[in-house]
């Protein structure tokens, strides 16, 4: 399974908003990188690949890490659940690129 997700912490527990989220997002990305699972981070989403339980565990820990000191955390998650397939994080892109070269 491949999951693309984005976390966005908002506000402080006392109700004060502090603006930027890069520090909080970096905590979430660190969790993903330390997981050992295949992953990729872009400006909007982080993609991670593995089985259901391990991916969802990493997403939960990433949300918790991003939410440290925040009043709330928004989570956007999209999943490609394809039993029996692995190593698709790069393979899906390679198939699209091949079609582009073939035209």
- The top-level CATH class is Alpha Beta
**What is the share of helical residues?**
40-55%
Distance between the termini: 29 Å
Largest sheet: 4 strands, antiparallel
Q: Within the CATH hierarchy, at the fold level, what is the topology?
A: Alpha-Beta Plaits
Q: Identify the strand order in the major beta sheet.
A: 2-3-1-4
Query: Could you tell me the number of beta strands?
Result: 4
Report the β-strand fraction as a percent range. 15-25%
Molecular shape:
elongated
What is the architecture at the second tier of CATH?
2-Layer Sandwich
Average pLDDT metric: 92
Helix and strand composition category: alpha+beta
Radius of gyration: 16 Å
Uncertain parts: none
What does this molecule look like?
The protein has 103 residues and is α+β, with helices and mostly antiparallel strands. Helix content is 43%, strand content 24%. The chain is built from three helices and four strands. The protein has helices at 22-35, 52-66, 88-102, and strands at residues 2-10, 39-41, 46-49, 72-80. The mean pLDDT is 92.
Which descriptors apply to this entry?
103 residues; 43% helix; elongated; Alpha-Beta Plaits; 4 strands; alpha+beta
């Amino acid at each position: 399974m491949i999951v693309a997700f984005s976390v966005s912490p908002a506000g402080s527990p006392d109700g004060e908003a502090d603006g930027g989220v890069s520090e909080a997002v970096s905590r979430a990305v660190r969790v993903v990188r330390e997981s050992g699972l295949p992953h990729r981070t872009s400006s909007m989403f982080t993609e991670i690949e593995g089985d259901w339980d391990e991916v969802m565990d990493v997403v939960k820990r990433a949300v918790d890490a991003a939410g440290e000191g925040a009043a709330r955390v928004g989570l956007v998650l999209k999943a490609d659940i394809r039993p029996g397939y692995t190593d698709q994080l790069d393979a899906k892109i390679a198939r699209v690129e091949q079609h582009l070269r073939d035209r």
